[in-house]
């Protein structure tokens, strides 16, 4: 079943190729998708998901960013605020194309796709499979986003050119609102993200309260994502509040 779904997905992605080549930003999304599928499988294994839940999760991971290609083509941006909610877009495309026709858990998979970027998920309204898929997909997505940041820092001249990070201020202490939210284990209101330290701290916040499964936290620790951010934040700022947030993350992983 998964191989067939993957075939449909690949054929769809192929329609965005220009003379055989995907635009670079789309290629990165395809790579992200592959990584999220691999991470989702690891989480399913580590958490001993039953076969049915693991199959549904694998499908949700493959499909979660389906709308990114059309979003970029149509709006030339991945910023949802300036275009469309890419999770809704992904959900609608998969549904309209009927890729999950014949899948027992089609509606559960579609729900996991739909909520993958929401601040909170309506856990009370979900059955066990939908809830497990939604949580594990969100974990897998975050784990690969940790890699995306690290790659971008390695491959851009971010010290001298802040366009790589949406023109955020580079060497600046974090916003007090961001630090306070993280110390209270609250979600950060994105309007307070004013500098690169804020942006990186939001990811540290995911380590405090955003990774649902022990397997996800273990992967995060093993891959050194917290250590990376500790070194990086120390380069950006010597604000002591940052150390307190880092300690909190260390205790949470
Ligand atoms: Fe996404």
Topology at a glance:
Layout: H1 2-14, H2 24-46, H3 51-63, H4 68-75, H5 86-97, H6 106-114, H7 128-155, H8 176-183, H9 196-210, H10 214-222, H11 225-236, H12 240-252
Helix pairs in contact: 1-3, 2-3, 2-7, 3-6, 3-7, 5-6, 6-7, 9-11, 9-12, 11-12
Brief sketch in words of this structure:
By secondary structure, the chain is an all-alpha fold.
Structural write-up:
- The protein has 253 residues and is mainly α.
- It folds into two domains: 2-138, Hypothetical protein af1432 (Orthogonal Bundle), CATH 1.10.3210; 156-252, no CATH class.
- It has helices at 2-14, 24-46, 51-63, 68-75, 86-97, 106-114, 128-155, 176-183, 196-210, 214-222, 225-236, 240-252.
- The chain is globular.
- The model has no long low-confidence stretch (mean pLDDT 95).
Mean pLDDT: 95
Which CATH C-level class of the largest domain is it? Mainly Alpha
Whole-angstrom Rg: 18 Å
Secondary-structure element string: HHHHHHHHHHHH
Main traits of this protein?
253 residues, Hypothetical protein af1432, 12 helices, 0% strand
